[in-house]
Amino acid sequence: MSGRLQGKSAVVTGAASGIGRATAHAFAEAGARVVAADLDREAVEAVVAAITDTGGMGVSVGGDVSRRADAEAIVATAVERFGGLDIVVNSAGITPRALGPDVDFERAWETVISVNAKGTLLVSKAAVDAMRAHGGGGAIVNIASVMSMVGYHPSLALSDGFNPYPHSKGTVLQMTRDLAVRVAAEGIRVNAVCPGFVYTGLTRGVTQNPELHRALIAMHPMGRLGEPEEIARVILFLASDEASFVTGAAWTVDGGYTAA
Ligand code: NAD
Predict the structure, then answer these.
(1) Is residue 61 helix, strand or coil?
(2) 1 pLDDT exceeds 80?
(3) Candidates 44, 146, 202: which one to mutate for ligand 1, based on the most atoms within 8 Å of Cβ?
(4) Which among 60, 51, 61 is positioned nearest to 22, based on CA atoms?
(5) Is the Cβ atom of 24 under 6 angstroms away from ligand 1?
(6) pLDDT at 124 over 60
(7) Which ligand 1 atom minimizes the distance to the CA of 199?
(8) What is the Cα gyration radius of the chain?
């Protein structure tokens, strides 16, 4: 894997945990200089310490992607520290479960859309501006979801039909396509990865429920859920020059979930 991103400057949001953390590690192993960004500053500092301990290059930055100034500061860190920006992975994300059981549905909707959809928008806007300022070219990988394409199966009882998570991820996929066609001629590729259910902090609440865990496993024809590293490997491909003719695409990495 070493060298596939040699010399590239990359921003990974949500890099303190799960898919973002696995991506930050995979990128550093592939030779990228990584800006690891997260709301959880301490945890993301630890991720960068692990990267530098193993000979990689990284810098951590705290920030909330749903705040424009923070999104711009995250991108500016890459430009200031590494002289430009080649790759952005928008992995910061939440589900309404994180907000607790008693949260009002309208507030939950606004909060989840704000982080998952608006956060992706704000970081992407700052990134495209930076890529253009440095002569164009680059790759953006948005972490969408199988929930960009289908709703929660009713048997899972994970949604009452007003769950903002699928709404936010549908938006991320359409943002991916609309931005991809606009910037394609500038050499900027924009793609989405649509994972099935993956063992991370985000899904801990459901995977720790034995009945729900079994039901989720049954919905993935491969008979298991995914590991963050399995998503990171596809993100790495899409971010690399090996994907030079891939843009505006939705890559399902879901053990067959949406094929069933
Ligand atoms: P995770 O909870 O392990 O990691 C998400 C990270 O994002 C956390 O470190 C968190 O602190 C950070 N974050 C949350 N809000 C933020 C904000 N406003 N600003 C900056 N950072 C913020 O979750 P994960 O499963 O690794 O999720 C990564 C992405 O993958 C998310 O967009 C998620 O929706 C998507 N996804 C996950 C799964 C899954 O099954 N785990 C499936 C499909 C898509």
Answers:
(1) strand
(2) no
(3) 202
(4) 51
(5) no
(6) yes
(7) 41
(8) 17
